[in-house]
Amino acid sequence: MPSDNEARRLIDSQDGLVSRWWLKHNPLPLNQVPGKLTEQNLNLHVNHFETIDPTTGLPFCEESPFISLACGTVERDAMAKTNFVHTARHTALWFGTRFGAERVAYLYTCWVILAPRSAVEVQGVAEEIRDLNTYRRYSPYQTEGEVTAKVNVPANQIRSCEKWVWDRPAGDMQRQWEYLNTDFTEPEALSNVRELI
C-alpha cells in the first residue's frame, strides 16, 4: 500500500497512471507496444488477469499493457424487471481495498477518450469493455463497469487523488482528503460543440 506522499507523487511527478508492463520495463520499449495491444491480451487482462503467461512464466497481470479504470455500469435483472446501478466510485473503492482486506484506498479521478467501437490496437483511446453492443462475448466481470486504458493515462487527464478509509465498525468508506492536480486539463478542451446564437 502506498503512503500518502507516494499517492500524491503520481500527480506531482507528471508520470500519470502507467501500466504494470511500463513499470517493469522503464524506459518503455515503444517498438513492442503494437505487439502488446491485441484482442488476446485484452481478453487476458479482463478475464484471466492472474493466468500464467507461458512466454514469461509470470501472471499476465505483471506484464499487462492495460490499465483498468472503473466507470460504473448497470446490471439488468430481467425477472425482477429492475436495473441495478454499480457506481464507478463504489467499484473502484471495492478494488482499492482489495475487496475489503485493506483499510485504505487511493482513488484517482480521471478521464480518457473512449473508442466508438473496438480499437484495441489504437493506443490513444480506451476500450469500453462493459458495452455489450461492442464486446458481446460473455464475461463474468461485466458488472464491474470497467474501461481499459492502454499503456498510460497522461497526468494532465488526472483530476485528483482522494484518500478513502474504510470504517469497518460503521461499514462505510469515508474520504479523508482530496489532492487536486493543478495541471489538469478539462475534457471539454476536446469538445467540438459550438455556441449557438
Shape label: globular
Q: Strand content of the residues, in percent?
A: 25-35%
Whole-angstrom Rg: 18 Å
Q: In the CATH classification, which architecture applies?
A: Alpha-Beta Complex
Q: What percentage of residues falls in helices of 4 or more residues? A: 10-25%
Number of strands: 9
- Unreliably modeled segments: none
Question: Spatial order of the strands in the main sheet?
Answer: 5-8-9
Classification by helices and strands = alpha+beta
Main β-sheet, in a few words?
Answer: 3 strands, antiparallel
Give the helix tally.
5
Structural overview:
The protein is an alpha+beta fold. The protein has 5 helices and 9 strands. The protein has one domain (4-182): Heat-Labile Enterotoxin, Chain A (Alpha-Beta Complex). The protein has helices at 4-12, 20-24, 33-36, 39-47, 88-96; strands at 17-18, 66-70, 73-77, 82-86, 104-110, 146-150, 152-153, 158-167, 172-180. A 3-stranded antiparallel beta sheet has the order 5-8-9, with helices on both faces. It starts with a helix and ends in a 17-residue tail after the last strand.
